[in-house]
Every structure is written in structure tokens, then in C-alpha cells.
Amino acid sequence: MQPITFKPLYMERVWGGRELERVYGRQLPNPSQPFGESWEIVDRDKHQSVVDEGSLAGTTLHELWTKKREEIFGTGFRDHPRFPILIKVLDARDDLSIQVHPPVHLADSLKGEPKTEMWFIADCNPGAKLYVGLKRGVTRADFEKAIQKGSVAECVHAVQPKPGDSIFIASGRCHAIGAGFLIHEIQQNSDTTYRVFDWNRLGLDGKPREMHVAQSLASIDFNDFEPSMDTPEGDTLAACEYFKTDKKNLAAGATIGNPIAGQFSILSVVEGELKSSAGRKFGKGQFLLLPKNAAPLSAKCPSVVLQVTLPR
Description:
Elements: E1 9-17, H1 19-24, E2 35-41, H2 61-67, H3 69-73, E3 85-92, E4 98-100, H4 104-107, E5 117-124, E6 130-134, H5 140-149, E7 156-159, E8 166-169, E9 175-177, E10 181-188, E11 194-197, H6 213-219, E12 236-239, E13 244-250, E14 255-256, E15 265-271, E16 273-275, E17 281-283, E18 287-290, E19 297-299, E20 303-309
Antiparallel strand pairs: 1-2, 2-3, 3-10, 4-11, 5-8, 5-10, 6-7, 6-9, 12-13, 13-20, 14-19, 15-18, 15-20, 16-17, 16-19
């Protein structure tokens, strides 16, 4: 089988911009609105990736997952009624809200879904900040007082990454993406986010966005102090029970295929260009699903590729 690509789903966000247009040459749906997220691979009730080319064009990811699972993805995934990971590109021109995702042991009681994720910094402005974890010594009582005073940002730890860096965001880690980032996000298939602080601003509708203070306080790990950006282990940027993300630096003419025999992977072209055995080209900013028996792709020039696999 040949690589499968999907139509991106673009999401307007008050903190978004138009970097997807400038950096990746995308055609955004509205010429004047800020788009903060492009959902590249998603299988949810209200949002579906749809194949954009080839014999499967018009087929949803959920249809592939339920009707062609072993043929395309491989065996060992019976416990997942939906495709279990969600992949996005985030364009943050303004600060995102300070937020948290519920841990597994609390998600049901909070009427949410757990969400562990990782961020790969595709591009960022000099000095741009990520907010991750808490400043050392901040207690829950300190944090609650800061919510009342509108000064939560003073409690959250900030780091200044560079393009090519990455960080793992486990459920329960307080976090926010600051202004000036283009990020590839790999996450559990979840859309539960609890906002605890939104910089005292208004949403696109001119009203304050909904906050989830009680849920956030229940979810935040108050022992998560001052994490740094991650150090890769070889090619591996992140590995957990939900996904594994590797970064591959390919020389011109090098090939990349599925690393596990009989199992699919997802490729994200960070830099350069890949070419399939049928001659189809995949450039910077493209995402593709490589079916389990697909032939390897070759790099037309020096290329950087993220490869995501799913643990059985």
C-alpha cells in the first residue's frame, strides 16, 4: 500500500495566527481569522480526518480503523474503539491559557478524558517561552491565592527552547505555550483541557473564556517543579504507554520505513522532502500514515522527520 494522507482540520483560536500559511504554504479557510490549530490526524465523534487522495479518498480515519484495521495498521490494537492518538500543529502567536489535563485516576470523576502529550518545537521566535510545571516551592495554597489575584503566571515555571527541542507533558502537568511557537503535538486521543488562567483576556466572541478552576486544582501535580526541555535518548524524543516519537535525520537518498514489522507508523516532515515508491512527494509540514506493508520512502534531500508509533 501507498502512504495515506488526510485533509487538515483548521481551528480558529484567539491566540492563533497564520504561520501555517507562511511556513507550510497552507490555504487557510478564512483570509482574516487567526487559526491556532491544524488537526492532522484525528478520530473523534465530532472531528474526523478524511483521506484526501488515492483509492481511499473520502474515507474517514474511523472507517479505516474499524473496517481495515489489520490490513492497514496491523494487529494488537483491539482495545481501542477509536484511533488512539491525535496529532496537531499549533500556531501560537499569543500566549495560550495556563491549563492542565486530568490524570488517568481522576478523569472519570471529573467527567473528562486523560491526556498525555508531547511537543516538538518546529519553529519559535527568539526568547519565546513555554510554561511547564511550577516554580520551586509554590504550594497549592499559593496557587489558589494567585488565581484570586490574577497572578497565576508568577507561579508557573518558564523555559526558552529552540527549534528542534521537545518536551513531554504528562497528564497533571500545569502548562501553557507562550507566544511565538509553531509546534507539532502528539497526544492521546482526548479533547479535555481545564483552563485555570487566561491572562485576563477575552475570547473571539468578546467574552471571557470559560475557566475550570476546581477541575484544574484537582488535576495539577503540585510536586512538579521546574522541569527542563527533554534530552533525547538516541532518536527517541518521547516514549510512553500511549505513543513513541522518534526524530530521524535523513541524508539525501536515505530511506525510512516502518520500524516495527507488520505495524504502521505516522511520519511528519519537519524539513526536506520524502518520495514514495509511486513517485508521490511529501514536503515540509506534511503528515502521512504509512500502512503496515508500505514500501519505505526515500529522502530527496537532507530531511528531518518525526516518526510516531503506537505501542501494542
